[in-house]
Specification:
The protein has helices spanning about 30-50, 100-115, 130-135, 140-155, 170-180, 195-210, 225-230, 230-240, 265-275, 275-295, 300-310, 315-330, 335-359, and strands at about 1-10, 15-20, 60-65, 70-75, 90, 120-125, 160-165, 185-190, 215-225, 250-260. It folds into three domains: about 1-50, no CATH class; about 60-275, 3-Layer(aba) Sandwich (Rossmann fold); about 280-359, Serine Threonine Protein Phosphatase 5, Tetratricopeptide repeat (Alpha Horseshoe), CATH 1.25.40. The chain has 13 helices and ten strands. β8, α6 (about 195-210) and β9 (about 215-225) form a beta-alpha-beta unit.
Length: about 350
């Protein structure tokens, strides 16, 4: 008798099939039992630690005066959070949707693992009447301002500027919160936002306030299936309102080939990476300064330090270090001639970019 055994690791998403295993009458029950134990151990291992950087999520109940009912939020924190500091906090919509919740937490986990975003509290909002809450907006915003954030301040140490993220109607609401309470929500991630409700009122509000709001705004949309195709013209209007505004650090990504429900798979990670780009460059700058203490003449560390300074708008300093990297490349006798030529050309282009940006 011939069988195929399949071991499935749920949260890790890995399925391994071992075929051509002979199980015949000569096999003892002990062997079969051992195989089952191995399968159980494999599954147990996969379920045990889905997120390497995050604590187990806690669901907290709030007796809401705003909604006149009990409301719940999901709080997940980095395992490296230091409670004596003001820690980064990201609030996201649709935490009751297991797909959205899982994608968001996994994206944040992966970026924290490599110091691409700060260690953070991740706060997921569970909706009771999703469409009504997100589209009517003001009651949900009041709930965040008067009940959720005071609770976070009371129980945890969080920063006084937060990131808010959402998909679809959640992206509509996140954009609204970013505009209305910009001092607090100074960063927004809007994934395939539906900007058509209420006669496109969020677009009107964005147009009215675009010169006075500040912060980071990441916007993305797909182009596959009607759900996202029908939203694109509204998203492009938002893009046209915000682009080239010096007071808003803005990025738009056209996720061609992605449908409405697929855009969060890429969008949340890309959005988080963009929002905390400056924070990451600060980390890179410190890292390269440390590396240069050990290898002061290595042009590679010098170039990356200059890249960090350039991205942090410290253009004059960046130019100095690009020139130093160029000098060190010229003196590096271990570099093949063709590679040296390519690096020299790249560094000269970066020096030119510094002159253009400064002017």
């Amino acid at each position: 008798m011939r069988h195929s055994l399949t071991f499935f690791c749920g949260l890790a998403g890995k399925t391994r099939t071992f075929s051509n295993i002979d199980i015949n009458k000569t096999h003892s029950q002990k062997t079969i039992f051992l195989l089952l134990i191995i399968q159980l151990l494999c599954c147990s291992f996969c379920f045990a630690q889905p997120y390497s950087q995050l604590s187990t999520s806690d669901t907290i109940t709030i007796r809401s005066k705003v909604f006149q009912t009990e409301r719940k939020v999901i709080i997940t924190k980095s395992l490296k959070i230091k409670n004596d500091l003001q820690n980064n906090c990201i609030i996201y919509m649709d935490a009751d949707d297991s797909n959205i919740n899982g994608i968001f937490l996994q994206s944040a986990n992966n970026l924290m693992a490599y110091d691409e975003i700060p260690q953070s509290y991740l706060v997921g909002i569970i909706h009771e009447n999703r469409n009504t809450e997100l589209l009517e907006k003001d009651k949900l915003l009041k709930f965040l301002m008067e009940e959720v954030i005071p609770l976070l301040n009371d129980k945890f140490s969080i920063a006084n500027q937060l990131t808010i993220a959402g998909h679809s109607f959640g992206g509509y609401f996140a954009t609204y919160a970013f505009i209305k309470e910009n001092v607090l929500f100074n960063s927004c991630i809007a994934i395939s936002p539906a900007y058509w409700p209420n006669k496109s009122d969020v677009l009107d509000l964005l147009h009215q306030n675009v010169n006075t709001i500040h912060g980071n705004f990441y916007l993305t949309i797909g182009d596959k299936r009607w759900d996202d195709i029908s939203l694109r013209k509204y998203v492009f209007k938002a893009q046209n309102i915000v682009k080239n505004k010096s007071n808003i650090f803005f990025n738009f990504t056209d996720l061609k080939g992605f449908s409405h429900n697929a855009t969060p798979t890429v969008g949340f990670g890309a959005g988080l990476s963009f929002i905390y780009d400056e924070w990451e460059w600060q980390k890179i700058l410190i890292e390269q300064e440390r590396n240069l203490r050990s290898f002061p003449d290595f042009w590679g560390h010098t170039e990356i330090k200059a890249d960090a300074l350039f991205h942090l708008q410290r253009v004059s300093e960046a130019k100095v270090f690009f020139k130093e990297a160029l000098k060190n490349v010229s003196a590096d006798n271990n570099l093949p001639a063709q590679e040296k030529k390519i690096i020299t050309k790249r560094l000269k282009h970066k020096i030119k970019s510094c002159r253009q940006k400064k002017s």
